[in-house]
Specification:
By secondary structure, the chain is an alpha/beta fold. It contains twelve helices and 15 strands. A seven-stranded parallel β-sheet has the order 3-2-1-6-7-8-9, with helices on both faces. It has a six-stranded parallel β-sheet with strand order 12-11-10-13-14-15, sandwiched between helices. A two-stranded antiparallel ribbon has the order 4-5. β6, α3 (about 115-125) and β7 form a beta-alpha-beta unit. α1 (about 15-30) packs across α12 (about 365-380), α2 packs parallel to α3 and α6 (about 220-235) crosses α11. The longest helix is centred in the N-terminal third of the chain and has 18 residues, at about 80-95.
């Protein structure tokens, strides 16, 4: 059976890891043998069943800064820790000898981890049969801050990579909307469609979320303003608001938000396994505009309001939210314009807009990735 290794490190939210888990399952369904190598913090609510999962010594970002790393205790990541990660990664690859290697986001991002990625890529070259090497990227990237970085990325692609899997439907977003795609880079691109699990099957016996405003975000500093504003918006809204909190500190955040929400028609709870099902029956959704959130909303056809994360110069979510606002009529509120009044009004406007069907979009990206890999492996053999 052909083996596929996927290397992923989520540094802030869990979207990168969640998407990689969905991809790994689809590769297994296609008859491949995937191994998921994670370098981010362990996540309790993600289902790892049927996955050959390897946890490296974990790191996370220092808040919204992706140029410095912390260990699991919140201390600066030491040289010894980073060395242990690199050694464990290379040992895992040498033991598994994959037929294909996928690096999630690198070399378009995760430059803070470039040494371990480059060490891993170099190690695969010494294998008896070096694997196919592909980069896996979402629809919108953080644009390079300089021409030098874009040039270096192209150099790495030319040296190590056989292709770039773009998990997008080009009818919605092509990679050149956020990245300078040169002719050399364009030759490597393989559009897969969006990666998302199969549509949830609603149960007539379960009514959680029906008619509610569902608000979702991470539990740390990134989601604090959105959740607190949502509680205040619930006080002036005639609907019930449900706040779904992610992150390792979800329980503590929920306790604080529920105390804040006394007297309001709002409740906070940790993110639920049935979130995607709740999207099929809620009145509207509110959240940031990460890849997974946006695709879940499109697949469910739920109206909603995006409040894109834009701290520390981040533009990815703003670009995605703008595209989806223009194409599907989603509401959009910039962080500096986020007030209870604006949020309540935008939520009500989304409810009035009603549900829709995103007909014609390709949500089969995980399975298509499997087909692309099998085709490339067949051609090599």
């Amino acid at each position: 059976m052909r083996r596929v290794a996927i290397i992923v490190t989520h540094l802030l939210g869990t979207g990168h890891l969640s998407r990689s888990i969905t991809l790994a399952r689809a590769l297994a369904d296609a008859g491949l043998a995937p191994q998921l190598i994670s370098g981010g913090m362990p996540v309790r609510h993600l289902d790892l069943s049927r996955i050959d999962f390897v946890q490296l010594p974990p790191v996370r970002s220092d808040g919204t800064s992706f140029t410095s790393l912390l260990d699991s205790d919140g201390n600066p990541a030491s040289h010894d820790l980073m060395q242990a990660r690199g050694d464990a990664l290379v040992a895992t690859l040498r033991k598994g000898e994959p037929d294909a290697l996928i690096t999630e986001l690198f070399p378009f991002g995760r430059r803070v981890l470039r040494e371990e990625f480059l060490t891993a890529l170099a190690a695969t070259r010494s294998m008896t049969r070096p694997p196919l090497v592909l980069s896996s990227v979402r629809d919108i990237l953080a644009p390079p801050s300089s021409e030098k970085k874009a040039t270096q990325t192209e150099r790495w692609l030319s040296e190590f990579y056989d292709g770039v899997l773009v998990h997008s439907d080009p009818n919605v977003a092509e990679l050149d909307a956020s990245w300078p795609v040169t002719p050399k880079v364009a030759e490597l691109l393989r559009y897969t469609g969006f990666i998302t699990p199969p549509p949830p099957v609603p149960s007539l016996l379960d009514t959680h979320g029906a008619g509610e405003i569902i608000v979702s975000a991470g539990g740390g500093s990134v989601g604090r303003k959105l959740f607190e504003t949502a509680v205040a918006a619930a006080r002036i809204s005639r609907r019930h608001w449900r706040l779904l909190v992610g992150g390792a500190d979800a329980d503590a955040v929920c306790a604080r938000l529920n105390a804040l929400a006394k007297g309001a028609s709002a409740v906070a709870e940790p993110v639920r396994a049935d979130y995607r099902t709740m999207l099929t029956r809620c009145a509207a959704a509110i959240g940031q505009c990460g890849y997974n959130t946006a695709i879940d909303w499109l697949q469910a056809g739920v109206p909603g309001v995006f409040v894109p994360f834009a701290e520390a110069g981040e533009v990815e979510q703003t670009l995605r939210a703008s595209l989806l606002r223009d194409r599907y009529g989603y509401g959009m509120i910039a962080e500096e314009e986020l007030t209870p009044e604006n949020l309540a009004a935008a939520a009500e406007n989304a409810v009035r807009q009603g549900r829709f069907k995103a007909d014609g979009l390709n949500f089969d990206g995980a399975a298509e990735t499997g087909r692309i890999l099998i085709n490339m492996l067949d051609k090599r053999e």
